């Protein structure tokens, strides 16, 4: 995972609350077998509408989403985060997130920052007045800056640290790789191994 | 004497011993422990994104020699030599095959003797052993706890994590002792124990816990029966279910393809003998059940906790004091199209499904075959018999069980998850009612609009004969009444 310090990019005002993961990515896209390539699936139903905010040319290449409260509630599908990442978003700001969504975000390098309802309104107003405006999200001092305006966001210390260090769960564990290797050297020889593949004759002991 | 008494250590439970033994790093300041995983089971549904994640990050799969894959959820149980017709299913299977080849994972594909439901395959190969940690991207991984292993289901991110590191960051689980003493009456089996346990503690009762099943009734169960019990621990909300290993466990394992041999076997057994919960170990919670009093059990609703004795009636929601539970019961009865007060035994079924990782091992098939032998299936009822693995199928055929089933009028299928979940061609039609030996009676689980009653293999067999939810006790009663079973059940025959 890439280290995350600041992101400067186009921000999209999504004036909706209770955006559940079914809206972020409808169930039909869950049949896929890859972890990437979900950019077309993001908000698939809403994007049918030409007036939907993401369809406006000014927001092309956006990296920050400013949404209403209770973003990412509902089904635990990790695909919701993958779809946002694949589309190009590095940051979602919302007054409140679904718990599982917030957890999944941290694992995939998507910053889910909590802002106040008032700041959400302010940001929407600013972004709507000048579509395509860029803002800067600074994880070091937990602020969002656009022009003269600075608002702060919240994120828990552990997730922030992991994002700053660019550590996904696996990267974090692999920092302990020496300990894993050491542990492996103490494992008993008789513990099961799947390779080389063995198979009993036609009938197992119980069947005889 | 217990180990703790000898060494003077703090007495520990079985679960704690296995946990401690697999501690790579103890978490500090609220961070989780890092636990080593001895065996990773893989199937086609929850693995593709995990493999893809490895690929994207350029990481290898750390221990292919502790990983094994099989095809089960999507596979058809008929015409297994033909290409799979459903495109999504075919893609998932083909993706698994490609991924296993790329990452060096052993795979048992459709047509292979070791192919089958992932939770049947691990034990049958002797890979599932006492005291190990087992994970799989499937909630019913709890099955393997029957051997005294710590076995639990994980999500796709965790699957990728195990593939890359052979470890998982985990917070310790709480422990719950479920003691079942006494002797089961004939006609009552392991499935009835676990259904009764879930009805007692509820589908959330085990949340955050590892359940340890103990007591004389558990000790006297075969490995197959123990697997049935641990399999459904998850339906009580538990992370895992465990049973301490004993002579029954060792007898089952000895001689299996991947079981230790020679001196290794001696060393392994010596370790396994230390696993049982120490005298004086403290559980976070305890539940007691009396096996003597148990009757064949059956569910009436749409979660596995909504069950009653077969001799009982469909409960009346208005008698339930908890408002949420009452509403759930009302919804369940509507979905199940059942009226409160109806005797369970009057409920007719269209389909009987004998299979799934809960009850598809050869012992389950034997038990059902013994009951149906010499009978024929009730009018208007179809019965599907689906062995848990290709090997189980061959074993059953060697004993002539397939003949008993087909003579009875049942369909004898190839191995897979089949009608346990609506992911392959074996599904209920809307409104169809099924007595099923599987583990979930959720709305639509066996097919959209399908209605499921969870039962034991013995109840499934008796139900197939009589056409209404029945147990072997009813067959005996029919016999005593001097009637042939079919005329009693159907009247019109
Ligand atoms: S048989 Fe059913 S419960 Fe078991 S692994 Fe297959 S789908 Fe899951």
From TrEMBL, chain A:
Recorded catalytic activity of this chain's protein: (2R,3S)-3-isopropylmalate = (2S)-2-isopropylmalate
A GO CC term attached to the entry: 3-isopropylmalate dehydratase complex
Pathway(s) the chain acts in: Amino-acid biosynthesis; L-leucine biosynthesis; L-leucine from 3-methyl-2-oxobutanoate: step 2/4
Chain ranges of the Aconitase A/isopropylmalate dehydratase small subunit swivel domain: 1-115
GO biological process terms held by the UniProt record: L-leucine biosynthetic process
Short name of any one Pfam family annotated for the protein: Aconitase_C
Top-rank taxon, per record: Bacteria
HAMAP family named in the record: LeuD_type1 (MF_01031)
Its job: Catalyzes the isomerization between 2-isopropylmalate and 3-isopropylmalate, via the formation of 2-isopropylmaleate.
Quaternary data: Heterodimer of LeuC and LeuD.
Name of this chain's protein: 3-isopropylmalate dehydratase small subunit
Organism per entry: Cryobacterium psychrotolerans
Automatic annotation (TrEMBL), chain B:
A biological process term (GO) from this entry: L-leucine biosynthetic process
Catalysed conversion reaction: (2R,3S)-3-isopropylmalate = (2S)-2-isopropylmalate
Cofactor binding annotation: Binds 1 [4Fe-4S] cluster per subunit.
InterPro entries hit by this protein: 3-IsopropMal_deHydase_lsu (IPR004430), Acnase/IPM_dHydase_lsu_aba_1/3 (IPR015931), Acoase/IPM_deHydtase_lsu_aba (IPR001030), Aconitase_4Fe-4S_BS (IPR018136), Aconitase_4Fe-4S_dom (IPR036008), IPM_dehydratase_rel_enz (IPR050067), IPMI_cat (IPR033941)
Keyword Amino-acid biosynthesis: yes
Pfam families assigned to the protein according to its UniProt record, in alphabetical order: Aconitase
UniProt keyword Iron present: yes
Aconitase/3-isopropylmalate dehydratase large subunit alpha/beta/alpha domain location: 16-467
Binding site for [4Fe-4S] cluster: 357, 417, 420
One term of GO molecular function: metal ion binding
Pathway the protein contributes to: Amino-acid biosynthesis; L-leucine biosynthesis; L-leucine from 3-methyl-2-oxobutanoate: step 2/4
Keywords: 4Fe-4S, Amino-acid biosynthesis, Branched-chain amino acid biosynthesis, Iron, Iron-sulfur, Leucine biosynthesis, Lyase, Metal-binding
Cofactor: [4Fe-4S] cluster
Entry EC no(s): 4.2.1.33
Role this protein plays: Catalyzes the isomerization between 2-isopropylmalate and 3-isopropylmalate, via the formation of 2-isopropylmaleate.
Quaternary structure and interacting proteins, as annotated: Heterodimer of LeuC and LeuD.
Family (UniProt): Belongs to the aconitase/IPM isomerase family. LeuC type 1 subfamily.
Name under which the protein is recorded: 3-isopropylmalate dehydratase large subunit
Annotated organism of origin: Cryobacterium psychrotolerans
């Amino acid at each position: 995972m890439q280290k995350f310090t600041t992101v400067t990019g186009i921000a999209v005002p999504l004036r909706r609350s209770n955006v559940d993961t079914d809206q972020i990515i409808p169930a039909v896209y869950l049949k896929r077998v890859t972890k990437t390539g979900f950019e077309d699936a993001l908000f698939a139903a809403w994007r049918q509408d030409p007036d939907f905010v993401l369809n406006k040319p000014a927001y092309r290449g956006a990296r920050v989403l400013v949404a209403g409260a209770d973003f990412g509630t509902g089904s635990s599908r990790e695909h919701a985060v993958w779809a946002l990442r694949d589309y190009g978003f590095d940051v979602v700001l919302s007054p409140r997130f679904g718990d599982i969504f917030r957890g999944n975000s941290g694992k995939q390098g998507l910053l889910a920052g909590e802002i106040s309802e008032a700041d959400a309104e302010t940001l929407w107003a600013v972004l709507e007045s000048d579509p395509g405006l860029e803002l800067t999200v600074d994880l070091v001092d937990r602020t969002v800056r656009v022009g003269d305006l600075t608002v702060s966001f919240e994120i828990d210390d552990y997730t922030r640290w992991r994002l700053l260090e660019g550590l996904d769960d696996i990267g974090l564990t692999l920092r302990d790789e020496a300990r894993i290797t050491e542990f492996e050297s103490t494992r008993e020889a008789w513990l099961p191994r799947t390779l080389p593949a063995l198979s009993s004759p036609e009938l197992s002991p119980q069947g005889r | 004497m217990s180990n703790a008494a000898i060494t003077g250590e703090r007495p520990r439970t079985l679960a704690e011993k296995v946990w401690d033994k697999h501690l790579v790093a103890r978490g500090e300041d609220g961070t989780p422990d890092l636990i080593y995983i001895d065996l990773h089971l893989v199937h086609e549904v929850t693995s593709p994104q995990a493999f893809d994640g490895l690929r994207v990050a350029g990481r290898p799969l750390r221990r292919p020699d502790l990983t094994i894959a099989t095809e089960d959820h999507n596979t058809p149980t008929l015409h297994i030599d033909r290409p799979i017709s459903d495109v999504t299913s075919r893609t998932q299977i083909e993706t698994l095959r490609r991924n296993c080849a790329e990452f060096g994972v052993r795979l048992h594909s459709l047509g292979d003797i070791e192919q089958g439901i992932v939770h049947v395959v691990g034990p049958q190969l002797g890979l599932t052993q006492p005291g190990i940690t087992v994970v799989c991207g499937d909630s019913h991984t709890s099955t393997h706890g029957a051997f005294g292993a710590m076995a639990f289901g994980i999500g796709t991110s965790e699957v990728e994590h195990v593939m890359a590191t052979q470890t998982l960051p985990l917070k310790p689980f709480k422990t719950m002792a479920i003691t079942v003493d006494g002797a089961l009456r004939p006609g009552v089996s392991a499935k009835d124990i676990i259904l009764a346990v879930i009805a007692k503690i509820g589908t959330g009762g085990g949340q955050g816990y590892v359940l340890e099943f103990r007591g004389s009734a558990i000790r006297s169960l075969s490995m197959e029966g123990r697997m049935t019990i641990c399999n459904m621990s998850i339906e009580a909300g538990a992370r895992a279910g465990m049973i301490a290993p004993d002579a029954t466990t060792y007898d089952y394992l000895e001689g299996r393809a991947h079981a230790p041999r020679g001196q290794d076997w001696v060393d392994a057994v010596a370790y396994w003998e230390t696993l049982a919960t120490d005298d004086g170990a403290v559980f976070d919670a305890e539940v007691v059940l009396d096996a003597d009093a148990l009757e064949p059990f059956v569910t009436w609703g749409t979660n596995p906790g909504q069950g009653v004795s077969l001799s009982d009636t469909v409960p009346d929601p208005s008698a339930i004091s908890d408002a949420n539970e009452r509403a759930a019961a009302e919804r369940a009865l509507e979905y199940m199209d059942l009226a409160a007060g109806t005797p369970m035994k009057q409920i007719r079924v269209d389909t009987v499904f004998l299979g799934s990782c809960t009850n598809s091992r050869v012992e389950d098939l034997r038990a059902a075959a013994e009951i149906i032998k010499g009978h024929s299936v009730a009018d208007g009822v179809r019965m599907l018999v689906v062995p848990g693995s290709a090997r189980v199928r061959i074993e059953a055929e060697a004993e002539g069980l397939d003949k008993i089933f087909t003579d009875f009028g049942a369909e004898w299928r190839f191995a897979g998850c089949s009608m346990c979940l609506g992911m392959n061609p074996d599904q209920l039609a809307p409104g169809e009612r099924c007595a099923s030996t599987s583990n979930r009676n959720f709305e639509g689980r066996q097919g959209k609009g399908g209605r499921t009653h969870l039962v034991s293999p013995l109840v499934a067999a008796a139900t197939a004969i009589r056409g209404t939810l029945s147990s072997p006790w009813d067959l005996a009663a029919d016999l005593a009444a001097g009637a042939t079973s079919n005329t009693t059940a159907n009247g019109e025959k």
